[in-house]
What does this fold into?
Amino acid sequence: MRLQPLALPLTVALALAAGSAHAFTVFGSDAYRERADERSWAALLELLEEAL
It folds into this structure.
């Protein structure tokens, strides 16, 4: 069975936080990176503003 791609009207964005490990937004953890956390939060707020 061969799957056909879906033609959906969506936009995809990928944000990379160079030098950040998984859980970089968990305050107090060894992986926490303040700048990456602030930037990812700002990107989420922008996405929600556009979507809602």
Q: What stands out?
A: The CA atoms of residues 11 and 26 lie 27 Å apart. The chain has one helix and no strands.
